[in-house]
Fold this sequence. Notes:
- This protein is an alpha+beta fold.
- The protein folds into 3 domains: 9-46 and 377-462, TIM Barrel, CATH 3.20.20.80; 50-363, Glycosidases (TIM Barrel, Alpha-Beta Barrel); 484-673, Exo-inulinase, domain 1 (Jelly Rolls), CATH 2.60.120.
- Helices cover 17% and strands 31% of the residues.
- The longest helix has 19 residues, at 296-314.
- Mean pLDDT is 92; it is low at 1-31.
Amino acid sequence: MKRVRVIPERWIVATMFLLTLTLSLGSIVAGSQPMQVVLDGRSHGRVFDGLGAASAGASSRLLIDYPEPQRSQILDYLFKPGYGAALQRLKVEIGADVNSTDGSEPSHMRSASDHDSTRGYEWWLMAEAHKRNPQIILEILPWGAPGWVYSDSDRSASTGKPTLYTPKMAGYLTDFIKTAKRDYGLDIGYVGPWNEKVHNIAFIKELHRRLDAERLATKIVCCDEYPGQGAGQWSIADEMLKDPELGGAIAAIGGHYPLIDGKITTTEAARKTGKPLWSSEDQPNGGGGPFLSRDWAIGGRILAHLYNKNYLEGSLTATEIWSPITSYYDNLAAPNSGLVYANTPWSGHYNVQGTIWATAHTTQFAQPGWKYLDSASGTLPETGSYVSLRSPDSANWSVVLETIGAKSAQTVSFGLVGGLHAKVVHVWETNHSRTFEHVADVIAVKGGFEYTFDPDSLYSLTTTTGQGKGNAQPPPAFPFPLPYTDNFDTTSLGHSPKYLSDQDGAFEVHPCTGRAGRCLEQVISTIPVPWGPLPDPFTLAGDAGWTDYSVAADVHFLSDAQATVMGRIDSSDVFKDGHARWPGGYVLRLKPDGAWELLSAQYKKPVATLASGFVKIDRNQWHHLELRFHGKNIEASLDGRTLASVEDDTHSHGMFALGTEWNRVEFDDLQVRP
Length: 674
């Protein structure tokens, strides 16, 4: 039970004097009396812009393959108000058919005349989020771009590499915004120039002019830079203060992972701009470090502290987590980034993690447009922090308070002045033994109340109602099905088959050439403007634990590009070696002239050729490629004839993939068997 005490009105007046001193005074008297906090509706503070997440880097790829009702349950936990995380913002990648962390997302505009908004899953995800929360703030940001947006004359002056900072790219971005409205009825609130690249002032101004010319209400958030890039991730603020035109073009300043070495990196120049300041990509990882568990014990506790810290130390009024959901395979880069863990759609299983409820402690108690109360936001005497917010009309208020790391209970006395009132204060709590529980209703008498807070906990105190905790439960998980076969005839034309995750390029189903039915085709023949590492196009699936199995597919050459079948892929993290053409595993590649190779690929090590040769083939006919694994034995065959049988123990287990180069190749009758 909690100890509750009525606070005399005379105490509130006296406390107003105390608040003109420093918060350290509270720690001096903490041992003898409760800390005193006055919520004053007249207090200065920035406007709260919401908590959200960034669906990018193919992080949501497998979600669309989930069966119902599990898919809708996951979406409810992410976006439905009063149910789970209740995300207030959603940023999505503008796909470009190029790897952007855990795969490639398809472009809606592969040439200047091509328009197809049915590709991929980000349009669908935005629509589903908006369906659940019509007030959600939508943002878009490119990682890469189709090759047509630049020419040789557009290459970066500093690096000589292809750049997105071209007039064609400004048109590409505005086209996405107009398409979202035309095809899905979605209003895009904000657009960024280029993810984690040094900003270009001329392009920002060009994009702003294009948005104005198209009469679009979408605003620019800039510049989504990573710490250490260029002159610094907040250096755009210094430019804005010197250049009124630039300052007028940018509506908000966003930086990625602003917590470095325990400190938020926001500069005074950024504050002086008067613009909203956002952590436009963040993680509960202590600032750019390794990705951690998202349960309450680790990720949830870190995130509970981070949300408050971002405002208290950085004046950051919005925080966006990458990513909303872990819907990509575990052997890809940065596993377990999402608030929900859901990457086994064949089983329907998902895991609602502690970071969902750490987020809900803010999103279910304050809405974008509310105002922070700076005089009632700060740190606790032992350890912990608190932020207070009020609604625009001061009819409601909330306090989000965390005691993460505290070893003993702390009592705080609250007073209400400046138009703020309460008859009943609702108290919600999360810690190691409670998950988003409504634990108390405190009666406020004569404008005050007192509450004792458990150590290592997260609280929301509020006058609002309507909060809730979803109760949908997933089925148990089970491994990727084996045997697994797909002739692609049931997949919609122009779309990707279930479970296959493109890592570069775009593998889509189209009518077969030279045979009846539908086939899987890699369709990108012009290399896009890359964001990061650029492996050869491949698409993968399966189970990281598979050991002895065969993977086979029919292949048909539509260009001079090779066809590859891969198995025992034990690592597909493109950041381990940005120059690798293939993931870590065994690769059987066949060229249209009949040359073939069996390779062992490992990141940061030379590719080993296990066998090679030449066979006479008709490039215009279909051919059957197969890899078989049994212990150390790896066998490669073509059209039922053994090409090589070798002994190698470099890769003992892993997934399978189909691949090619940056040109067109068809695949059919995929078969994976034990």
